[in-house]
Amino acid sequence: MVSVIQPEDNSDMGFYDDRVLPHILNFMCGMDVDKPFREKACADLTGDVVELGFGSGTNVEFYPDTVTRIAAIEPNDEAWKIAAKRVAGSSVPIDRAGLDGQHLPFDDDSFDHALSTFTMCTIPDLPAALAEVKRVVRDGGTLHFLEHGIAPDEKVRTWQHRLEPMQKRLVGGCHLTRDIPRALADAGLTVESLEQFYEKGAPKSLAAMSLGVARIG
C-alpha cells in the first residue's frame, strides 16, 4: 500500500476532496478490470433511471439503448467537469439532477429504476438514501448495484476494520465494512440476484464486491 502523508489543515483536506480526489477516482473507477462488472450492473435498465454517485461518468458507455433518461446525482463539481465529454457523447440524455442521495429532489414514483456503483460506501446516511430510492422509484422497479464492502473472511474483515479510518479520510468517507446486501434488505428491498467475489488485482480488504439487483415494492 502506498503511504500518503495527510495534510493537517482542514482547508487542505477540503481542496484534496474537492479537486484532487475526483481525478484519482476517475482513474481508479475507469480501470478495465471493472468494465465487465459495470456492464453487468447496467444491463436490463430501461426507461428513466436515477443514478446515485454519478462521479465522472464511468458507467455512461454501458447504458443500454432501452434507457431513455439518466438523472445523475453527483455532489462534486470537479467530477462533473471530468464527466463532460462522456455526458456530451452519450446517446442517452443525462442531467445533473441532484447533489445528495439522502435528499432526492424528485416526486414519488418518478423513475423506473435506480443505479449505484461504488457509491453506497460513501453515503453518510445509507438508510436515508435507500429510503429515498424506494420513494422515487416506482413499485416493481429495481436498484442495480455494484459495490464493495465487508469481506466474507474473518482475517480480511479484521484488516478492513483497521484500515477503515484511513480509507474514510483518503477516499471521501468511503467505508470498507458496510454489508451492502444486508443494508438493502434492512431498507425493505428484495435482493433478487447477487454475486459476491473478490476483484482480481486488488488487496482483498478493498476488493470484496457485491453485484446484483434489488426489487422495490
In short:
The protein is α/β, with parallel strands linked by helices and 217 residues long. It has seven helices and seven strands; from the N terminus they run ααββααββαβααββ. The protein is globular, with a radius of gyration of 17 Å.
Structure report:
The protein has helices at residues 10-29, 35-42, 77-82, 84-88, 126-136, 154-170, 180-186, and strands at residues 47-52, 67-73, 94-98, 111-117, 137-148, 190-198, 208-215. By secondary structure, the chain is α/β, with parallel strands linked by helices. The protein has one domain: Vaccinia Virus protein VP39 (Rossmann fold, 3-Layer(aba) Sandwich). A 7-stranded mixed β-sheet has the order 3-2-1-4-5-7-6, with helices on both faces. The longest helix has 20 residues, at 10-29. The N and C termini lie far apart (42 Å). GO terms for molecular function: S-adenosylmethionine-dependent methyltransferase activity. InterPro entries: Methyltransf_11, SAM-dependent_MTases_sf, Thiol_S-MT. One of its GO terms (biological process) is methylation. This is Putative methyltransferase.
Strand order of the largest sheet: 3-2-1-4-5-7-6
Number of strands: 7
Mean pLDDT: 93
Helix content: 25-40%
End-to-end separation in angstroms reads 42 Å
- The fold-level CATH name is Rossmann fold
Largest sheet: 7 strands, mixed
Using the coordinates above, name the CATH class: Alpha Beta
Radius of gyration: 17 Å
Shape from CA axes?
globular
Count the DSSP helices. Answer: 7
Give helix and strand order, one letter per element, not per position: HHEEHHEEHEHHEE
When the domains are counted, the total is 1
Low-pLDDT stretches are 1-10
Strand content: 15-25%
User: Architecture, CATH level 2?
Assistant: 3-Layer(aba) Sandwich
